[in-house]
Design brief:
This protein is α/β, with parallel strands linked by helices and 745 residues long. It is built from 31 helices and 18 strands. The strands form three sheets. An eight-stranded mixed β-sheet has the order 13-12-11-14-15-16-17-18, with helices on both faces. β1 and β2 form a beta hairpin.
Length: 745
């Protein structure tokens, strides 16, 4: 009876067990799931199978691998973590995981991990407890401990085993930043012992397991001889990295291993660097650092206890909850097609046309060739424009070759997908044309006519406009159902969001096709309904306007930027204005004002700045200096502002709140007016497109954390103080009256 129950549990968790020539092969393939994940149930079955292998005298060694096509173990099951209601529960779960892997590490027979696909988080901790690790050379194979991206730390021994294996320096680099590494880098670090082609992974793993059992294979790991080796091998680089030392040799073995003063300086400096990056908003990296420190100074047992305690605290923290919610939101978006019906299928896109060879056009051509993997034809008005686009794409490939994420042959093959010209040659066969020219409706209408004259009847026309309504663009088309907005963010190769805008007549198959294109280009895609500024540009406008109002009030530029960075934005609004282009903001302003009236009117504070020819970074003349030295506020710009050099010291918290609440209030308006389809999409769009602080969860999660009634009160306070631009969104007033929140309680 017990055997039958065990077999049922094994089948439910997707384990198979077979013995090949004295080696037990344990294969995990969770039923009905695209990837393997780790849960207590999975761990229990694995432990039972280890016991089975231990008791079987015919079994001399074990190989653990995955039955999934492109996944080893992608980490802990996030759904399980959400069931943990207290820090004590989460700490107990961490200890359980640690004990399971401790048992695996101490197992009496050699265990080999055969890794193909994603080996992340708990999956890597699982592999670290094995005696030997082999990974495939597939681009699908990645290894890492990305827990900090969810506001957590490795909770099953990762903070202790990884430093002991590869050295403190490399471990800190992976754990504190949540970095993933490719197999070749993993081999250099000592994270895996061999990298092999995927077809021979399993057979070689069985062979290596047998060799380990027979004493024919001796594993040489200069970094894997415990913390003493960590000190010997990792101390110099870590000292240089964290302390900026030029004389790396000053970090002797004593500094890290035997000298308490040296250790204290080392970890204090590491903590200082972390605080500089996180500004205290993200506690997980600091907790991870502390767990590593305790393990180095007091031994593994103490380190594991600290890891479990910190893990428990973080699981129930607000920051982790917000980051996990974002994770689930983006995961859900990956499964959606952007329409009301899941039955709508995207059409295959075999070739993309790009109009405009500027920064955006070049970026779109790059993601089309590099990630989507299709031929891209670029058109610009002259040879110089085409040349700039091709040079930009080539530069991005060169950068990847330099970083060794592509070989030069791979880069050359992808670059060959991008061609260009000044005419429409090559556009007859394109499936989607993405337009990235100046924000001029008449120009765009002319281009739509030209494109429709040379493309197939089923060709999609997508505009990268950031503010012109798609409905207005479609009026210039003979095929309005195939006109849509695809709003990319700069730089296209780095910014994760794609905002797709549909007008009332956009065909569902067009939406689904463009959503699929965005996903293949590596983007997180939200679909919004049409309107001036759509969603992201619309909520950015009042945020930036408020920053301009603060300048008009006499705010210090550096203090204003610092206030918003302290709030959690990656850069301040004035720095952003310089990056985007002061002239670009000036062009968008009138469009927003004509659509939304006085509350979107930009103050006249910046008129003299624009008249002075200051465009920002692109002409190296803006609010900040761009002369190659340290970036600083250009003091002469104050002469162009209303208060001149007579700046005022304004309250940092109020400056940040004025700007942030403008963005939140406008997001609420977008939801109430039906521009947004859900609060979830609004949060994802603001975080991935505009840098709204992830630890706050987005405008709507932030509103719920404040409480809608408190948000309303603060807006009314600023309305009384500064006028109608702070008038609360009507839908917020209604929400408060109804006693509801944006997300279900």
């Amino acid at each position: 009876m017990a055997a039958m129950v065990a077999q049922e549990l094994e089948a439910k968790q997707g384990f198979t067990y077979q013995v090949e020539d004295g080696v037990a092969l344990l294969v995990l393939d969770l039923p009905g799931e695209p990837v393997n994940t780790l849960s207590p149930e999975t761990g229990e079955v694995f432990a039972n199978l280890l016991t089975r292998a231990e008791k079987d005298p015919a079994v001399k060694a074990v190989v653990f691998t995955s039955g999934k096509k492109d996944s080893f173990v992608a980490g802990a099951k996030i759904d399980f973590l959400q069931t943990l209601k207290s820090a004590a529960e989460a700490t107990a779960a961490s200890r359980q995981g640690q004990q399971g892997f401790d048992r695996l590490e101490a197992f009496s027979k050699p265990v080999v991990a055969a890794i193909h696909g994603a080996c992340l988080g708990g999956g890597l901790e699982w592999a670290l407890a094995c005696d030997y690790r082999i990974a495939t050379d597939s681009p699908k194979t990645t290894l890492g401990l990305p827990e900090v991206q969810l506001g957590l730390i490795p909770g099953a021994g990762g903070t202790q085993r990884l430093p002991a294996l590869i050295g403190v320096q490399a471990a800190l680099d992976l754990i504190l930043a949540g970095k993933n590494v490719k197999p070749s880098k993993a081999k250099k670090l000592g994270l895996v012992d061999e990298v092999v082609p995927a077809p021979i992974l399993r057979s070689l793993a069985v062979r290596r397991a047998r060799e380990l059992a027979e004493g024919m294979l001796e594993v040489e790991r200069p970094r894997g001889q415990g913390l003493k080796a960590v000190a010997q091998q990792g101390k110099k680089g870590l000292g240089g990295l964290l302390l900026g030392l030029t004389n790396k040799e000053m970090w002797t073995e004593v500094a890290l291993e035997d000298n308490p003063v040296g250790r204290k300086i080392l970890f204090d400096q590491a903590r200082k660097q972390l605080r500089k990056k996180t500004r205290g908003k993200y506690p997980a990296p600091e907790k991870a650092l502390e767990a590593i420190r305790i393990g180095v100074e007091s031994g593994r047992a103490a380190g594991l206890e600290a890891e479990a305690k910190f893990f428990g605290e973080l699981v129930v923290s607000d920051v982790s909850k917000r980051l996990v919610e974002i994770f689930f939101a983006t995961t859900a978006l990956k499964k959606e097609n952007g329409t009301a019906s899941a039955d709508v299928k995207p059409r295959e896109v075999k070739k993309v046309g790009v109009l405009g060879g500027g920064l955006m056009g070049g970026g779109i051509a790059y993601v089309g060739s590099a990630l989507q993997g299709v031929p891209v034809r670029v058109k610009d008005k002259d040879d110089a424009g085409v040349g700039r686009a091709l040079k930009q794409v080539q530069g991005l490939y060169d950068e990847r070759v330099k970083k060794r994420s592509l070989t030069w042959r791979e880069a050359a093959a992808k670059m060959a997908l991008v061609t260009g010209g000044t005419g429409y040659e090559g556009f007859k066969s394109v499936d989607v044309v993405i337009e990235a020219v100046f924000e001029d409706l008449a120009l765009k209408h002319r281009i739509i006519g030209e494109v429709e004259a040379v493309t197939r009847e089923d060709c999609i026309f997508a505009s990268n406009t950031s503010s012109i309504p798609i409905t207005d663009l479609a009026k210039g088309s003979k095929r309005p159902a195939q006109v849509i907005g695809m709003h990319y963010f700069s730089p296209v190769n780095k910014m994760p969001l794609l905002e797709i805008i549909t007008h009332k007549g956009t065909a569902d198959w067009v939406t689904a096709t463009c959503v699929e294109v965005g996903k293949k280009q590596g983007k997180t895609v939200i679909v919004v309904n049409d309107g001036p500024g759509f969603y992201t540009s619309r909520i950015l406008a009042p945020y930036m306007n408020e920053a301009a109002h603060l300048l008009a009030d006499g705010a210090d530029i550096a203090e204003l930027d610092k206030a918003l960075v302290e709030f959690g934005f990656p850069v301040g609004p004035i720095t952003l204005l310089d990056e985007v282009g002061i002239d670009v903001a000036q062009k968008v302003g009138p469009i927003m004002e004509s659509a939304f009236g006085k509350r979107m009117t930009a103050p006249r504070a910046l008129e003299k700045v624009v008249a002075d020819g200051r465009l920002g970074r692109k002409n190296k003349k803006g609010f900040y200096t761009y002369d190659g030295k340290k970036k600083e506020v250009d003091p002469t710009v104050y002469e162009l502002l209303p208060h001149g050099k007579n700046r005022k010291s304004l309250d940092a918290r109020e400056m940040a709140e004025r700007c942030a609440l403008q963005m939140v209030n406008e997001a609420v308006r977008c939801l109430g007016e039906g521009i947004l389809r859900s609060a979830r999409d609004g949060d994802v769009g603001a975080i991935f497109g505009l840098g709204f602080p992830p630890f706050l969860g987005g405008p709507f999660r932030y509103a719920d954390s404040l409480g809608p009634a408190e948000l309303l009160r603060r807006l009314e306070h600023f309305q009384d103080k500064f006028g109608e631009r702070f008038t609360p969104a009507p839908s917020l007033v209604e929400l408060v009256k109804a006693g509801k929140t944006f997300y279900p309680r």
